[in-house]
Specification:
Elements: H1 2-33, E1 35-38, E2 42-48, E3 54-56, E4 66-74, E5 77-84, E6 88-91, E7 96-98, E8 115-119, H2 144-168, H3 185-196, H4 203-217, H5 226-235, H6 240-251, H7 257-271
Helix pairs in contact: 3-4, 4-6, 5-6, 6-7
């Protein structure tokens, strides 16, 4: 009798296992039958249906939690695409119909019902405020192109800066050219005197020399009759000697006249305040 009592627990365990096995298998099949997709992303299920072509029902509510589309794959195979906007578990069968408008009885998915689960990838109680979400960390790979363009712009900007700076740099202004000073009447007179020591003056040069001498001697005197002015200069004790010597040299050349006239002109040069230094000896 003792061996029989030992076998009773084993028999009972085997009976319980046989009784609950179908339920466990059904629960496993049901679990495997629920397809999952993230909210806002597309999921798909492949089914087999032989009776008539399948299609998605016309959309009556744009705010439906799940949208469905049916695509024929050839033969009796179809792909059911779905996208969910609200988290939860939904049955896609009410959103599908046959081409004649009837319900697709006996639709075989191969894994059970057409239930799908829409889940969210956001943290719990995240809300819908985008600005309340934490900013993602910096990812260099996402900004690789921007970094390359920035480096290229900097590489070009540096030489461009120096080129523009060089072009805009002000060139130093050259010193203004001062026109040569016009020689004074006294300088022209005494230059002619120095020239007379080395060569014979032309008739025009003789006339210019006499005219400039009279201009210097009459400096500051009122304009008047030239002949009377020359007569007055001859009679003047200060200017008479040089005037008579120059006239004798230029109009009635005689021996020793040139030397005497040049000596008188040198004496006048020494007294003149605006005249250059005296020239060499005749």
């Amino acid at each position: 009798m003792r061996p029989v009592h030992r076998a009773i627990p084993a028999v009972v365990s085997l009976a319980l296992l046989c009784a609950f096995a179908p339920a466990v298998r059904a629960q496993s099949d049901e679990t495997r039958a629920v397809a999952r997709a993230a909210r806002g992303s597309v999921g798909s299920i492949e089914v087999t249906y032989r009776d008539a072509p399948l299609r998605a029902k016309a959309l009556r509510d744009a705010n439906a939690p799940v949208l469905v589309r049916v695509t024929a794959l050839g033969g009796d195979r179809y792909r059911i695409d779905y996208i969910g906007a609200v988290t939860g578990t939904y049955d896609l069968l009410p959103a599908i119909e046959r081409a004649d408008g009837r319900a697709p009885e006996g639709l075989d998915r191969g894994m059970g019902s057409l239930s799908v689960e829409i889940f969210s990838q956001l943290p719990p109680n995240a809300g819908t405020d985008v600005f309340g979400l934490s900013a993602p960390g910096f990812n260099f790979s996402a900004h690789y192109t921007t970094a390359l363009w920035t480096l290229g712009a900097l590489w070009t900007a540096i030489p461009a800066f120096f080129l523009i700076r060089r072009a805009m740099r002000r060139t130093p202004h050259a010193a203004p050219v001062v026109p040569p000073r016009e020689p004074t009447t006294a300088e022209l007179l005494f230059a002619a005197v120095d020239a007379a020591r080395t060569r014979e003056l032309t008739a025009d040069e003789r006339g210019q020399l006499e005219l400039r001498l009279l201009q210097i001697l009459r400096r500051g005197a009122p304009d008047g009759d030239v002949a009377a002015a020359i007569t007055a200069l001859r009679a003047d004790q200060r200017t008479g000697a040089v005037v008579r010597a120059v006239e004798s040299w230029l109009h009635a050349p005689e021996s020793g006249g040139a030397a005497r006239a040049l000596a008188e002109l040198d004496a006048l040069r020494a007294k003149s305040s605006d005249a250059p230094a005296a020239g060499g000896a005749p």
